[in-house]
Amino acid sequence: MLCIAGAAGVQAAPPPLDLTLREGAVTRSLSVQNWRTDRRGVPSFDYHYRQSGPDCTYQRDGRAVAGFEDLGDKVELEVFNPQGDDGRETAPIAVFYDADGSVVFSMPVPGKGRPAWVSFDDAAMKKKLPKKCGHAGRGEAVMFRK
User: Fold this and answer.
1) C-alpha to C-alpha distance for 2 and 82, rounded to whole angstroms
2) Is residue 53 left, alpha or beta, with left meaning phi > 0 and alpha meaning psi from -120 to 50?
3) pLDDT in the model for residue 44
4) What pLDDT was estimated at residue 99?
5) I want to staple 144 with a disulfide (CB 3.0 to 4.6 A). Which of 19, 44, 63, 84 is the partner?
6) How confident is the model at residue 19, as a pLDDT?
């Protein structure tokens, strides 16, 4: 769950989220914790990503902040409503960025019955790891599902 104060009212911080994905000999894990919402209502969290496997070891830690537009007396959070295969609007998605913008997370805004997933897209990882490591060479985000 996200605490998107500007979009859904102030909510309690979500519990830590630990996700693991195994593809062949490669194991990827993502930990999301220490959620905070600043005085303007912009949520953020600490993250730790780890990937291990033959010649596929990589780690990244940081703090991700929700994308937002500063409108002076308030902020507007980046929340998107993508279209599904049927052309209909799907559940809203929030986007988070680390400090240098090279890591991008997207995940559903909290709501009843919405799937629990997080996508992790790291430009540096794609440059450092060989294509045999999976997502790193294909230009896709790593998709974690709970």
Assistant:
1) 18
2) left
3) 92
4) 81
5) 19
6) 93
Please choose, from the candidates 20, 28, 19, the residue with its C-alpha nearest in 3D space to the C-alpha of residue 133: 28
- 109 phi/psi in degrees, rounded to 5: -70, 145
- Least Cα distance to 14 among 45, 48, 51 occurs for 45
Sign of the Cα torsion 20, 22, 23, 26 reads: positive
What was the pLDDT predicted at 137?
47
**Residue 106 in tokens:** 């997207």
Q: Which regions of the chain are under pLDDT 70? A: 1-12, 110-115, 134-139
Strands 142-145 and 117-122 come out as antiparallel
Q: Are 4 and 96 in contact (CB under 8 A)?
A: no
> What tokens appear for 92 in the block?
């809203």
Q: Alpha helix locations (H) across the chain?
A: 5-8, 123-128, 135-138
Give backbone dihedrals phi and psi of 102, rounded to 5 degrees, phi first.
-85, -15
Close Cβ partners of 131 (under 8 Å, ≥ 6 residues apart): 137, 138
